[in-house]
Every structure is written in C-alpha cells, then in structure tokens.
Amino acid sequence: MPRSFLHQERVDFSFSGLKTAVLYAVHGQGVAQGPAPAPGPRRADLAASFQQAVVDVLVGKSRQALKRVGLRRLAVGGGVAANRCLRRCLEEMVREEGAELFIPPMALCTDNAAMAAVAVEKWRAHAWAPQDLDAQPTYR
Questions:
Q1: Most buried among 14, 21, 69, 110, using CB within 10 Å?
Q2: What DSSP character marks residue 13?
Q3: For residues 93 and 53, what is the distance between their CA atoms, to the nearest angstrom?
Q4: What's this model's pTM, rounded to 2 decimal places?
Q5: Which helix H or strand E contains 73, and what residues bound it?
C-alpha cells in the first residue's frame, strides 16, 4: 500500500492514494464499487496492510515534526490513539529519537463520532443549551 509523502521533508500527508489503492485491491483497477471481500485471509491482509500504511505515515510524519521543531515531546490524542499498533510504533520511535510520548490511557482515547451524533440529535430536537452554560473541564 502507498505511503504518500512519507519520504518528503514535509509534515503534511494524505491518505487519498491509500484509499484508492484499497478500493482497487478490493474491486479491481478502475472499478469504483462492488461487494466487500468476504471474511477470511484476504480481507484480513487488506485490513492489516491498510493499518500498517497509516501507522507508517503517522509515525514518520511525527518523527519529522519532532525534528523540524526541535522538541523532545510528542502528544497524541483522539480515537486514533487507541490503535495498539500505532501506540507501539510511536513508543519505539520516541525511544529511538530520545523523546517522550504523551498518550492517554486507552479508556480515554475515544472518537468524537459518538459525541457528534448526540449533538446532532439534540440539534434536531431543538434541545439547545442555555446561553449562560458554563464549561466544566474536570473529568469525573
């Protein structure tokens, strides 16, 4: 699977080529749709290859960012931080670079999709928060 911009000295990246490669691996060159691959080794291989390509890019770009800014600390958050392969590869990378990794415990690495879904449903129901609502930033 492709790893766009991985070896270019820039910290931006794109997964559009990767998504296209997966699409063609599943349906054939130039075919945009069709049935999903059946459960089994081929499907598992595609998923593992996709995951490794994403991890390689995220770790590589994180390494480039640390070097570019000259910092020795990397913070990672969000739903992607729950990926065990990414966590393991980032831990290895910061060890090699002599840097520190700040990553929340797995239970706190949630995706915002559930929160967004709740917000949409509240919006549809016109369940607006009062104007004087105050944020409570403490987690309990």
A1: 21
A2: -
A3: 16
A4: 0.72
A5: strand 73-75
Number of Cβ within 10 Å of residue 62's Cβ equals 21
Distance from C-alpha of 15 to C-alpha of 118, rounded to nearest angstrom: 28
Distance CA 81, CA 77 (A): 5
Q: Encode 93-124 in three state secondary structure.
A: HHHHHCCEEECCCHHHCCCCHHHHHHHHHHHH
Q: Which of 9-13, 25-29, 49-53 has the highest mean pLDDT?
A: 49-53
Hunting for tokens 């290859």 — which residue is that?
49
* Buried-exposed string 3-17: b where 16+ CB fall within 10 A, e elsewhere: bbbeeeeebebebee
Q: Does residue 94 contact residue 74 with C-beta atoms inside 8 Å?
A: yes
Q: Where does residue 30 rank: exposed (0-12), middle (13-18), buried (19+ CB within 10 A)?
A: exposed
User: What is the Cα–Cα distance from 55 to 89, expressed in whole angstroms?
Assistant: 8
Distance CA(117)–CA(130), nearest Å, equals 20
Using only C-alpha atoms, what is the Rg of the chain? 19
